[in-house]
Amino acid sequence: MGHGRVLLSLPDSEDVKALRDEIVANNLSVRQAERLAKQVKEAGASKSAVSSQTAPRKKIQAAIPDSYCQTLTVELTRCLDSKTAIAQNGARGKLEIEYYSLDDLERLVSLITKTPTVA
Prior knowledge:
By secondary structure, the protein is mainly alpha-helical. The protein has two domains: 2-45; 66-113, no CATH class. It has helices at residues 2-8, 13-26, 30-45, 66-80, 102-113, and strands at residues 84-89, 92-97. The longest helix is centred in the N-terminal third of the chain and has 16 residues, at 30-45. It is elongated, with a radius of gyration of 20 Å.
């Protein structure tokens, strides 16, 4: 129902279809869909009075494909020897790395910064 409310908040049916496709293709959460809808609304409000058929539409930035994201997560998990996750928000995102103790955190920091561990 949350996704439906987001889609219904858009005035242009073309924007609704584009956002719907983006939600399905990238398995977006309701919050992510709300952020994209806000971007679409702001882009529509800032348009000039030029007709929509002659003006190019602003494309919604796509997230990394799920298969590639999964591959990156597996590679990071293997390389860092810790559980990792990639949380996407359109073209932006967040990389999460779990650690299990202070020593493990220091090990991860030294791997990422390429500095020797303090023993």
